[in-house]
Fold:
Amino acid sequence: MISQETKKGECKMKRGFLLGLVIVGVAAFLSFGQVGAQDKAPIVIGAVQPLTGPVSIDGLSVVQGIKIAIEKVNAGGGVLGRPISAIIEDGKGDPVESVNAVEKLIRRDKVPAIIGCWASSATLAAMPIVKRNQVPLLVETSTAPMITDQKNEWVFRFTSHNDIDGALMEQYLVPKLGFKKVAYLAVNNDWGRSMATAVTKMMDKTGGKVLFVEYASVAETNFTPMLTRIKSSEADTMILTTSIQSVAMILKQFRELGMKMN
Structure:
């Protein structure tokens, strides 16, 4: 069994740290010349992450990275002699909640740049808002290819996308790991759907096959019906694309069903 979320989760805090450093530079550039040289007020950046809800563990890891980056920059004297601070809003990984959070950061808090919005569906929903208001959005986690395909000049992706990830798997899954018949279990959002599509194309190209895809909501807790269908299929491998929390529940129910596969 292979989990996309497990691999990506290992990098999220580091990515948040590096992204924090990058956006500090963006914020400094946009703030330069707006205030007098003697002004020591903080440069305030925005972030939209899932702080509550079913994917909060992932969002909180990004937030930790952002905070570490800000502490490091401020310990070195800040930017233009000014400290950095962040307003972090809870987008819950949801498109509507994330759009509301982005609107608040732009209109009420007037931040010069935003980190967000973790989930691809949430990021895609926020992209027209930042474009209309000409506020840079740095994308730290979202991997749906459509984010790049839209060519929004105010959006800067800080991660690879699913087509790239799928292509990188070509040399491993079938040739080296021997995955021939795959059952795919993915979260039902832009990330999960686009990743399943990318892996399906890659498997077809390299002599394997995705037999079917099971989609689950982001808040799903009972995976037993899906796992039962996978168990009764001809699949020799199961690939997961979902949150860390969901992966943990899937593994527990997988073992309870006595399942054994790649």
